[in-house]
């Protein structure tokens, strides 16, 4: 990874945009993207956080604290409807019914950029994350959002990200030590029973909200449909360690990471 080359490319690619917003989720990739963009464009760089309404408790505090420490203006946007109200109306999102992307992220972002000119959204997407990411472009016009998107750390590896954080003394989100990832969204479409088992153990109050909405929908409707089987939040709550042992954790949401 040639950092100086990446910096020079960013200077050339982003210099003519009036507004530069870094999509700061609270994760380590977006942290590096924010710090790097800020170092290149100290006056124009701003941060944008999409509050889905169901982030891991602590994520928003970390985002606010980090932006304050870096001296970056932060804008928080979010959906018009509460996630749990949407679940009552539509049902839990699944891989085949992924309404969560549109209502929780895409629609708020489209509304945010629609009246803005010369705006670019900088992301923490890296090409080595997956086969899908390896085929993505570093800069392109996102037709869904109707705005330019720029993946400033497109050529970074995960090791490059860790080394950048260490070199620059950045504070990584402490939620990594608790959950393995700083989830900004607990939509059930791409979470495993083991992920929710961790949530049940680490933050039972927040997990209770998922149990309650499942109960409201009726005894035969489960919060998760995983590997062709129904998984009930109420059962995870009773014995989270069982689900930790039986299922694997997931740390990436391929749907959300291709948002911008």
Structure description:
This protein is of the alpha/beta class. It folds into 2 domains: 3-180, Rossmann fold, CATH 3.40.50.620; 188-246, no CATH class. The chain has helices spanning 3-14, 28-40, 59-70, 83-90, 99-113, 131-134, 158-167, 175-179, 193-202, 204-217, 233-238, 240-246, 254-257; strands spanning 19-23, 45-50, 73-77, 119-123, 139-142, 147-151, 224-226, 229-231. The strands form 2 sheets. Strands 3-2-1-4-6-5 form a 6-stranded mixed sheet. A two-stranded antiparallel ribbon has the order 7-8. The longest helix is centred in the middle third of the chain and has 15 residues, at 99-113.
What coarse outline follows from CA principal-axis ratios? globular
Helices and strands, in order, run as: HEHEHEHHEHEEHHHHEEHHH
Structural Rg: 19 Å
- The level 1 CATH classification of the largest domain is Alpha Beta
At CATH level 3, the topology of the largest domain is Rossmann fold
Number of separate domains: 2
Strand pairing plus helix content: what structural class?
Answer: alpha/beta
* Count of helical regions: 13
CATH superfamily of the largest domain: HUPs
Q: What is the average per-residue confidence, as pLDDT, rounded to a whole number?
A: 90
- Distance between the first and last residues' Cα: 23 Å
Strand content: 5-15%
CATH architecture of the largest domain: 3-Layer(aba) Sandwich
Largest sheet: 6 strands, mixed
Helix content range: 40-55%
- Uncertain regions: pLDDT < 50 for 5+ in a row? 254-260
**Strand line-up across the major sheet:** 3-2-1-4-6-5
- Count all strands and give the number: 8
């Amino acid at each position: 990874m040639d950092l100086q080359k990446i910096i020079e490319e960013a200077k050339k690619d982003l210099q003519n945009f009036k507004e530069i917003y870094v999509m700061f989720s609270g994760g380590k990739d977006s942290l590096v993207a924010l710090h790097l963009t800020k170092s290149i464009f100290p006056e124009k760089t701003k941060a944008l956080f999409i509050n889905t309404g169901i982030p891991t408790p602590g994520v928003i505090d970390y985002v606010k604290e980090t932006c304050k420490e870096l001296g970056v203006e932060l804008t928080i946007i979010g959906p018009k409807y509460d996630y749990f109200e949407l679940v009552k109306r539509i049902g839990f999102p699944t891989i085949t019914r992924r309404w969560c992307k549109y209502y929780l992220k895409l629609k708020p972002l489209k509304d945010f950029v629609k009246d803005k000119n010369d705006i670019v959204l900088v992301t923490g997407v890296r090409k080595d994350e997956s086969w899908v990411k390896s085929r993505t472009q570093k800069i392109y016009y996102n037709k869904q959002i109707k705005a330019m998107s720029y993946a400033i750390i497109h050529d970074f590896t995960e090791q490059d990200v860790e080394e950048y954080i260490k070199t620059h003394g950045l504070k990584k989100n402490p939620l990594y030590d608790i959950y393995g990832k700083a989830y900004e969204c607990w939509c059930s479409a791409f979470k495993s029973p083991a992920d929710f088992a961790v949530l049940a153990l680490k933050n039972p109050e927040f997990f209770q909200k998922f149990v309650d909405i499942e109960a409201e929908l009726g005894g035969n409707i489960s919060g998760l449909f995983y590997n062709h089987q129904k998984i009930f939040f109420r059962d995870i709550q009773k014995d989270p360690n069982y689900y930790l042992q039986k299922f694997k954790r997931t740390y990436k949401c391929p749907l959300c990471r291709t948002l911008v």
